[in-house]
Fold this protein.
Amino acid sequence: MTHPSFEAQVDAYLDGELATGDVRELETHLAQCPECTRFRDGRLALRAAIVAGVPTFQAPAALRERIREAARGAAPSARAPRRFTARNVWRPLALAASLAVVALGSWTLALQRAAGEALADDVLASHIRSLMPGHLTDVLSSDQHTVKPWFNGRLDFSPPVYDFAGRGYPLLGGRIDYVGGRPVAALVYGRRQHVINVFVWPATRGPGGGPSIRTRQGYHELHWTTADYTYWVVSDLGLAELQDFAQLPRQA
Amino acid sequence: MDSGAPARFEAVVLPHLDAAYTLARYLTRNPQDAEDVVQDACLRALKYFEGFRGEEEGSARAWLLTIVRNTAHTWRTRHRPAALAVEFEETQHSDAVAEDNPEGVLREKSAKETLGRALDRLAPEFREVIVLRELQGLSYKEISDVAGVPVGTVMSRLSRARARLQDALREEEVC
């Protein structure tokens, strides 16, 4: 294969879209070609810059509510689709009304949401760090009875540890991580070549509903809270499979 | 719509509202317009929801993003007719700037702002593949479905868009 075709493959490689056979060939080439390695490093630097500098956004609560209303109201009572041109008339009225009614509520909500975003970024950073060589596990064991006691004396709580090998998600080990300003348990599971990090720490608020989903940089993050624990699950695994996985600790 | 449909719509579509809003934000480059686009797209999605048979989450996301993407492009033709006088052409616009961009009006120092501005300056066809891939983690196949172009085109657009963003970062270092 000629050199430029390798360079063309680097994007597909980094995006996880290259066929296994081609991956091997490309990795061999990368090991001996400084030019392609530089190209790859440039792409990795860009990826890091995007994580740091290009935000995702949360849909405004009012928008979410309007859409929910439209779905429920279905046919006759549904709000007519807002025409783009009507915006200027409509917006100040809606703004005034919503400001008056929900000022306090949305303020606290916004604060909570900002905190949630920061935490989600923290969790993602930990996940990515864990994928660097030698950072994944402190205790390497697929035995839940080895992993669980390992946390004793290292954390002020005993995290729930289960092996889901029978369901296709083997436990690979665990480690201590530091997220949201506190030490937390990180449990590591595998699925084919994918790594799943499960971050667990004691809940400070009551149980919430189903997992909330956030996708960033090709990684999915699922978050939920039980009566006892706060859970964050991160992986580059497909969303459907990751949601399937997220059911398991909740059933265990 | 049957009586279970609103609940099903909420369960299947609403989890992807942030993704929809993020895409709309980058395509319209404006929070108010993004809200309008997402609302309009969701009303359309609601209308066609019974025709949606996707079972898994991923397909619901791609389905909603497709509608948002098309709504945003319609929005753009209405609001920026001048920009369409020149047909989008793959190679010519690969590093072309988007319509209204007084280059270098602001000279913020941080790489964060540089990258954000560089992204805003990309032609929408390039901006959307970056957002779908880098921020939303869609596969090439999904991006090809959402943008309505072959996978090979997705790959070449991604590659050109990334090269352009890297140039922008390098320029910032030089400054």
In short: The CA atoms of residues 83 and 99 of chain B lie 6 Å apart.
